[in-house]
Amino acid sequence: MKTLNYSHTLLPYIPFFYVIWSDDLLSASEIEVVKKTVSEDDGLTATDRKILLSWLDKKHPPKNEEIKHWQQLISKSGVTLIESETYPLEAFSQKVAAFYSHTEVKNSNLRNIEINLGIQPNHYSYLFHVDVVHQVSATTYDAKEIDSIFNHAHRGEIENIRTFLQDPIFEWGVHRPKEQARKRVLEQLKALANEGWGALAYPKAYGGKGSLEAYAVIFEYLMFVDGSLAIKFGVQFGLFGGSVQSLGTQKHHDAYLKQTGEAQLLGCFAMTETGHGSNVRGIKTTATYVHQDRHLVIHTPGKNDNKEYIGNAMDSKMASVFAQLIVNGKNQGVHAVLVPLRDEKHQTLPGIRVEDNGYKLGLNGVDNGKIWFNQVQVPVANLLDKYGSIDANGHYQSAIKNPNKRFFTMLGTLVGGRICVAKGALAGAKMALTIAIKHALKRRQFNDSIKIQEDLLMDYPSHQLRLIPKVATSYVYHTVLQRAMEVYANGQTDKRKIETQVAGLKAVITWFATDTIQECREACGGKGYLLENRIADLKNDTDIFTTFEGDNTVLLQLAAKGVLSDFKSELNSDGFVGVLKLLSSRLTDKLATINPAYSNKVDKDHLYNPKFHLHAMDFRLRRLTDSAAMRIRGYIKKGIPSYQAFLKVQTHLLQVGRAYSDVLAVKWYYDFVAQQPNEPYQKLLRQMGALHSLSIIREHATWYLEEGYLGSTKSKAIRQRVERLSTELRPHINTLVDGYGIPEKLLTAPIAS
């Protein structure tokens, strides 16, 4: 071996240059980092500098033979790589140099390359063919601090519920048949109610704290116990109790809220019908007012007009029934009516028929059922009349005269439920990620037949790429849902806007959870298929989240229509100026995309910059919105009815809804990051934000390439940066999943312990 070709001052650079060229991502910014280090290293001779600078020439790279020679030089040194070193590559390189020069080598300049290029042991440990002292997890960050950063709000309730869930009644187990599971979940529900957890969102006068945000946090934590418990909790206290609170008036609150919060009165939320699904406005159940004795007649008119998939149907004594309100022969639209279902002996009342939905894919601890009403009479006082009432003379009254506005105002009360569904789905994804990653940090598999010890699953780049970006995304969505609930609960924006925001977020987050849990199942192999390891139940229990509280495809269209309404409103309000602004933004976008310097800009600072992430996603949203609006306008100009015009661009609208949700999530996340005072942790949060954002851009790379926003070089660089960021976060991945704050006692999967 021609080791004498390299001076003792040049030798420490060899491992660095081997990593740089093996990494195949020598961008302009990386070249400048290395050049700066070389220029500031006073220990180098002029000849050394000339050689090192020649190795940075991308037009005339080192020959393959020389790179191979570097690898052999490193391997034959017999030096051990210790990942727990503060600067592991610097320390390793100095030991390699010392082996060949037979003298101690110190060169602190090398750490500048290691730090500024973000080189982690996982970038190179598999390249060197040396013994590696693996570091399963770095100690740079503290999981408790991460937990505190992301869960600072309602800290008291969080700590209390974590402690309360240590009770043996919440121990996870396999409960079959469904009757056994339902009994267990009902016992757990009543235990929560006895301690006041169910009433959290209700006013203090009814046993609560008036905190919808705290209630949503509890809902999330119950997913760590059992998805069935979370849903039962949500139906009883959120949907049923929430409808009484949000759609009713004081007489309803006084009569029912305290009993509901204590689980003395079990109720259900009867909105969905067999024949109408997500089309709430089209439901067929009627509530006809009879003035003679001041009552409402609740009736199921047709075969498929029954209420279906109603949670708590088998246990509840009362239902909040959504029906078409008929007053004096006129349909006043959908309203909610409280309808008793069972007597004190739990027997169904006359005119009520309830059937069990039976076994489901998941959530078999929830008693879903079908309900029919046959001319059931209830007092007019049972009408939840906050937005529409019937006066003493039998006339319908509402402060909201426009029926459409009244309908959407009533449905606006469902927004909180959609946020909770998204939080529950995300909690399932967090649990699955924690299990899969802790398994990957223990399980070893395969090697190159030279090593005595097999490699950890988590040290394979492919395994990192399938799980680590999802951890980053989970933190982004956690932050976003916290803000959404804060905005909704505090009334900081108009209801139509928050409904648009939550519709899109609920869709993308529940789909993310479904994809993530499936990825975790596969990442755990056969172990992930065993019930004892929890992922199977998480997979089955959260699958329904994509379609209840609104089918995701429908919700994305709802979000898109909200975007188009804002688009139209902006143009109408600005008039000619608005048109000029639109044309100007189009021109600016076009100039940006056809500029090769931008479309192929690949340096690290640019690709990691939140401004680039937001610009890229906002560009996609504006282009899709603009083109969708123009297409709809073109169809309408041809005389096609607006409803048909929307149908013709339906798939386009889905992309608008998705793009809108992506922009909103990234913007809100970076707003959160900017508020963090702790710089080291802010850096970690920015890394996760970059990984999430680049993953989204990469997912839509085809579209960006077609639009000319990305050049092929930049597209490739983004793919490489996603891989690189995943590897950079690898040392901290155990800390990150611990940062979720899942109580250890609830993390019962054997492969995670």
TrEMBL record:
It comes from Croceitalea dokdonensis DOKDO 023. GO terms for molecular function: acyl-CoA oxidase activity; FAD binding; fatty acid binding. Transmembrane segments: none annotated. PANTHER family: ELECTRON TRANSPORT OXIDOREDUCTASE (PTHR10909). Its main location: other. Residues 268-376 form the Acyl-CoA oxidase/dehydrogenase middle domain. It holds the Pfam family ACOX_C_alpha1. Its EC number is 1.3.3.6. Keywords: FAD, Fatty acid metabolism, Flavoprotein, Lipid metabolism, Oxidoreductase, Peroxisome. GO terms for biological process: fatty acid beta-oxidation using acyl-CoA oxidase; lipid homeostasis. The keyword Lipid metabolism applies. This is acyl-CoA oxidase. It is found in: Peroxisome.
